[in-house]
Amino acid sequence: MTINTLLVDFACASILILIGMFLRSKITLFQRSFIPASLLAGFLGLLLGPEFLNVLPFSGEIGSYAGVITIFVFAAIGINGFKFSRRNMKQDLNRMGAYAVYKVLIITLQLSVPIAFSILVISRIVPEINYGFGLLIASGFYGGHGTAAAVGDTFENLGWENATDLAMTAATAGILVGIFGGLIFIKWATKKGYTHYVKDFSEISSDFRTGLINKDKRVSMGTETVSPVAIDPLVFHVALLVVPAGLGYLLNSYISETWGLEFPTFTVAFIIALLMYLLLGRGEKGVYKYVDSKVVDRLGSAATDYLVFFGVASIQLPVVAQYWLPLTLLVLSGIVVVVGALVLIGPGMTYESWFERSIFVYGYSTGVFAVGLTLLRIVDPKNKSKTLTDTAIVGPLNTPIELFAWSAGPFMLLLGQHWTFVGIFTIASVACFVVARMFKWWYWKIPLDQRPPVPLDDDEK
Question: Which N-terminal residues, if any, form the signal peptide (predicted)?
């Protein structure tokens, strides 16, 4: 990839995003579905890109952009700081604790239920299917295309020739389930009154429907905190985000090469950005008084639009016709897990802003972070539910689970230890429920339409 191909890729993306905005502002169907312009643009990119019509000059690197942009998004969250209000500290800790258990439970269920279903049911219907087949759902749905490729390659090294194609197909199915299923559930939740930051289409303003704000309702994107004579204010804020994003990548690469540990790069960048926030200081003598959080938010939001576009436009749709039956059954088992996690476990383990936080986890656990982010932006455009902030903080808890599953899973499943593998994650799933009940992170008795939003911080009121 050269700087010129990068320029062309983002130029094509920008053209399609503008077209997506035009379609959103004019077509009622898209407005009623709350579909963001970036998502519409992503589908246009998929249609016009190399996977279908191939009329746009995209490079072969568009599939790698989403992961990099995600780092930038979380750097924006970190640089704006993280704080507990003393009044709500206990509430904050309970919220994050319950959310952490919920996220762990999602992956342990995907690593137990579909695999057990594959062993007990699918392998009897299609005897040539091996016991590793069920792992394709977790690697594709929760892990996404990158993890699916890695797990498929491990399986192929163990002698399963078609594993990578099947894993990539499962990952693609997960993305489609996340996008279209998520939109269906958002429509359901708005009608039921479960959403706090976006209401039913018939009750919202034309500004929100079309995405075009009338002159009398427009607000400033931010203020100049440094003099353009010294440095452009936008460059100042961009630099504050690029530094932790780049350092996060370098530090994570060093950790991986030195100790063989794999952490989410966006979490490392978030921690570095948070440290910068603490070092900059918020007092009168601190540098942070020159940081405009509204500008930072806008930069993070702008990156998110491009993240959504590239995440969708780079979808690959491998067709593995000879495995359509077992693959369909496996995907259905995965759908049962993620839907059950959304409509049953989500409200059970989430009290405040339960739907906003649960729909993000639903999207996040069906293959691409961009899908979860897209769904969250529809129902919580300003991250008032603190879902992204909490995700960055509790994200590392899933890393040991993923490392074990993706590295040891193929060996255990193909070499006769399949029930041991299933048993480990079944016990972990049960443990999540026990922890939730022990700490009283179980809220099923409270009606869904009576759940409050996440409390605002004092400076957000």
Answer: none
* Lowest pLDDT segment from 30-34, 195-199, 257-261: 30-34
Report the alpha-carbon distance of residue 248 to residue 265 in Å, rounded: 6
Hey, how many other C-beta atoms are within 10 angstroms of the C-beta on 384?
17
How far apart, in whole angstroms, are the C-alpha atoms of residue 205 and residue 208? Answer: 6
- pLDDT digits over 57-71, tens only? 999 888 778 778 878
Placement of tokens 């926030």 in the chain: 277
Q: How far apart are CA 313 and CA 39, in angstroms?
A: 9
CB-hemisphere CA count at 13 Å for 262? 11
Query: SS3 sequence, the chain?
Result: CCHHHHHHHHHHHHHHHHHHHHHHHHCHHHHHCCCCHHHHHHHHHHHHCCCCCCCCCCCCCHHHHHHHHHHHHHHHHHHCCCCCCHHHHHHHHHHHHHHHHHHHHHHHHHCCHHHHHHHHHHHHHCCCCCCCCCHHHHHHHHCHHHHHHHHHHHHHHCCCCCHHHHHHHHHHHHHHHHHHHHHHHHHHHHHHCCCCCCCCHHHCCHHHHHCCCCHHHCCCCCCCCCCCCCCCHHHHHHHHHHHHHHHHHHHHHHHHHHHCCCCCHHHHHHHHHHHHHHHHCCCCCCHHHHCCHHHHHHHHHHHHHHHHHHHHHCCCCCCCHHHHHHHHHHHHHHHHHHHHHHHHHHHHHCCCCHHHHHHHHHHHCCCCHHHHHHHHHHHCCCCCCCHHHHHHHHHHHHHHHHHHHHHHHHHHHHCCCHHHHHHHHHHHHHHHHHHHHHCCCCCCCCCHHHCCCCCCCHHHC
Q: What is the pLDDT of residues 230-243, one digit of tens each?
A: 999 999 999 999 99
Angle of helix 163-176 relative to helix 324-340, nearest 10 degrees? 40
Question: Which residue is it, tokens 């990539």?
Answer: 168
Task: List pLDDT tens digits, range 273-328.
Answer: 988 988 877 656 677 888 898 899 889 888 888 887 887 787 665 545 668 889 89
